[in-house]
Each structure stands twice: as C-alpha cells, then as structure tokens.
Amino acid sequence: MTADSGWRRLLRNPMAMAGLTVLGLILLLALFGPFLAAHEIDEVFWDRIGAPPDFAAGFYFGTDANGRDLFARTLAGARVSLLVGTAASLISLVIGVTYGAIAGYLGGRIDAVMMRIVDILYSLPFVFFVILLTVYVGRSLSTIFITIGAVIWLDMARIVRGQTLSLKQREFIEAARAFGATDRRIILRHIIPNLWGPVIISMLLVIPDAILTESFLSFLGLGVQEPNTSWGVLIGDGAQNMMETPWMLLFPGAFLALTLLAFNFLGDGLRDAMDPKE
Amino acid sequence: MEAEPRQDRIVLNVSNLTTRFLTPRGTVTAVDGVSFSLAAGETLGIVGESGCGKSQTLFSIMGLLPSNARVGGSIGFEGQELIGLPPGEMNRLRGIRLALVFQDPMTALNPYLTVERQLCEVLEYHKGLSRADARAEALEALRRVHMPEPERQLRRYPHELSGGMRQRVVIAMAMIGKPALLLADEPTTALDVTIQAEILDLLAEQSDSGTAIVLVTHDLGVVARLCDRVAVMYAGRVVEQGPTRAVFHAPRHPYTQGLLAALPRLDDLASAGRKPIEGQPPDLLALPPGCAFSPRCPLADGPCREMSPELLSRDGGCAVACHHADGRGGVS
After folding, report:
1. ipTM reported for the complex, 2 dp
2. Full-model pTM
3. How is the protein disposed in the membrane (chain B) (predicted)?
4. Residue A146: in which H helix or E strand, if any?
5. Which of A171, A185, A186, A278 should be substituted to probe chain B, the one whose Cβ sees the most B Cβ atoms within 10 Å?
6. Domains and their CATH numbers in chain A
7. How far does the CA of residue B28 sit from the closest CA of chain A (Å)?
C-alpha cells in the first residue's frame, strides 16, 4: 500500500526528520514555556527596560521596550503563531484543495461560478473585510482564524484548479471513468493524490503568510491583545527598535525563521515521500 | 472455436449510431449511421485513417463523450439500451460488463497507485470485496495476462514496469471484471513490434474465452491476425464490412482497395509497389456532396458526386457502400 512505503521513505529522509525534530522541540517549548521561563509574560521590570540578555537574572533573551521578559514572551507568542500557521495551512489544505479540485474537475459553468466566487473574495479589500468581521464577530482570537481562514485558501484553490484542469486531460482519468469510477471517487482517488507536490509547497507558503497576517491584524488591535503576544507582534515591536536593541528582533525572528525552515524541510520530505518515482 | 454458439448470443447490437459534436464552427458528424452486431467470442476490427470516427464509435459505446456530443441511434448491449442510460447505471456496467483498453499504457495508469491498487480499484467500484479477496483476484488477473512474477508486480508502480508489462496491467484491469465486451482502442500502437505480437495473442485468448471484442486500429495486419470481421470506416461511415478474409481477399470498395494497396509488402519492396491513396481525408465540417470518398476515388463519376451510396449487402456476407461495387468483386 502506498502510505506504508511513503512513511518509510519519510522516516529515512534525514532532512525531513531534522525538520520534524525541530518542530517538535518548538512545540514543546510553546507548551511548557510558562514552566521554563523565570518570569511571567506580563511582569514589568522597571529597572530593565530594553535590557540585553542576562542569564544570571533569568532574562535569557533580554527584555522588551516595556521591561518584560522576552524569553517568556517569545514562548508565549509561539503558541499563537503556531496555532495560526497550522490552522491556516489546514484550512487551505482542506477547503482549498477540495474546492479547487471540484471546480477544475467538473469544469464548465460550475467551474466558472466557483472561480468567480474566489475572484470576488480575492478582490475584497482585506482591511474592509476585517473591520466588517470585527463588527459582527467581535475582537478575539477566533476573529483571526475566521479572517485568515476566509482568504487563505484562495491561492490554494486556484493552484489546485489549474493542476486539475491539466490532470483531467490525462488518459488515466479517462480510464478510471471507463472502469466505472464515480466523479467523487476520481477526485479523491486519482486527482488529489496526483496533486501532492504543488499542494504541499503552497501549504507551506501559507504558514509565514498567515503568521505575518496575524501580526498585522494584532497591530490593528484585533486578535491577540496585550499582554498576550505572538511572534508577529514581537517582530513588529522589535523591528521598530532594531538599531538600539537588536535582540528584540533577533530572538522572535530566529524562532520564526527556524520554524519556517523546519516546515519546509518536512514539506520537501513529505512531497518526496508521496512521489513513488523518488 | 466452433461457429454455432456464437450466433445465439449477440452481445452488442449497434444500429444507426450517429455521434455529432456541436462545435463553434458547426456540427461535426463524427460517426454517421454505423451499424454492426457482435456475438460472444467474436472480434470485430474497425479500421480507417485518423479522424474517420473509429475511436469515437468506441467512446460512444462506452458513453465517454464530452458534453458537446449528441448521440443518436441505438446501442443494444446484452439486451439493454445504452443510449440515454442514466450515468449511475452506466457506471455500474463500465469496467465490469464492458471494458475499454486504452491506446497508450504509459498514460493510462495512475502513476501514484501500485499495480495492486489499480487492479483492486476496479473491483471496489463494483463489488464490495475485502482487501484479501480483491488482492487474490488481482493476482489471478495478472496471471491470466501471463505477467511474469505477478506477486512482485503487484507492489510495483507503473513507472517501474516496461511498456509491454503496463499494457498487460491495462488489459488485466479491463478483464478483471470478466466483461462480456472488450473495446480496444489501438491497443498495440504504442508498443514494440515483438510486444505487439504478445499483446495480440493475449487479446485472442480473451476472445477464445468468450469475450466479444471490438478492436479499433489502423494496422490492417492486426485485423487480419485477430478479427473475424472487419468494418472499414471513412469520414464517419462504414464503407465496407464483412468477414475479414473475404474483405481482404476481394475488397470491393475503392477505399479498402487503396488501404490494402498502400500496405508495404515484403515480396515487392524492390519495386516500390506501394500506392498511397492520393489526397487527404475530408474536413468533416465540409463534406463533399455525394460519396465522401469521391474526391480521392479513381472511379468517381457523376452519381458519386451527387448521391451518397448506401451500405448494401453483397454476396459473401459483405456489405459495401459504393456505386461501383456491383459486379466487380476483384482487386482492380
């Protein structure tokens, strides 16, 4: 069976395993951050505003512009950012792939209507959309998920539709029809498995996109509220004081970069593992 | 192969099949009034140049036409009318009662599925078999197509197989449901000559076990080898139809004569005795009035350019659509 040999290929891929390990560590840090950090995320140290790292006092990453422990805040930010990134990639995977595959496979008028809906959502001014949602849904973390979720799958749907259109012309799809496969079966069994390569790549591209969108939304005052934080917020704050206190940008930025790198290694490994020709 | 049991079980009865495509430039009649019937264990060859409607005839029978196609006439399959059959019911027949072998085994298999999955897929569409049972049937199907080391092949992916082995898998997929009718669209065109012979033997075996086969090809050698009867198509119409031996020995339609004369022959390669048919097949959007072959026909005269000849039965079980077919049975 395909999945077994795929898993074996994935487990034998050192890059993918390294990525998986790093992601696991970051996840553990995010989950157990409060126990690891020496200070609370909202405790203000008036004598240490914008102070560099000090291991003896437990400020491993230094403090932020308000004198709070950056280590504790970076780990707390990891929770929100990982959650947003994962949720966004799952939404684009489930909704985007299904939507795009159905539109591309059925074609004709159904395709035209489905893709015009995508175009409309695409062309909505994002900020206007956000404000509208805030009015109706209110400010909370779930607003972020709904907002990001509403737009994040559009790219995936377009990519998948395009790939499906070309895949549909392949003879084995015709063959599956000739063997009595239903449309549903053809999409699930023959179209989607053949889309893994581009799907995994665009799924990974979605993660930084979502994490940065979240920081933008938080900047607008939606979603994550002080004293809670996210990597996007920390990076935004850090960037403003880049010249004087570089560690405020460096540490959260390094975490984000490391996470994205690990996701990419894992994604490449997954793509290779799914491709029987590798 | 006895002759008696064939007559009593007609599997496929196509009558006046007409397939039109509505295109922006006009209506194209790809298949124009084709009729034939086929008994169990019988093999019919459909030959003709590219674009003569032979493949569209197959796809019409399978119900695999694009949405701009309009099919008329009647396709009786095991006593059931296929034209106008709801898609769900058609799906229930496809792959299990009637199956299609594709031209190019390189593209007809899903690159992401192992041979076992490809074969079991077909069974899962139609029968709720357990995995072990489906696997056993898949193995049996590979054995029937003489696949070397069938257990090992089950685990392999299409790209790990040679062209001949892939075509065996394709035929195994088609035969796994033990269909009454096998439609083959140029099943050997994409293969090496030596592999072609093996695949043809394989098809002959399926036919001996009682499967009716419609074989579309432009290779007259394949028809001579495999088919009991042959239908020659030109511009969507059958121009000559009959027992293979009779048609090939004494072709009556000038087009059939031309096809046979265009064949390279080992015994007169030196004399360059091949005579290609002059001219091009007609544009289906702008068919000439009268006989569609008349612009290329050496015998064409007044009536040929005015009136389309009907397909009329002649002696020897043949039917010919030509104004000049009467009284001149021999090769010109």
Report:
1. 0.77
2. 0.76
3. Peripheral membrane protein
4. helix A141-168
5. A171
6. 2-45+57-274 (1.10.3720.10)
7. 21
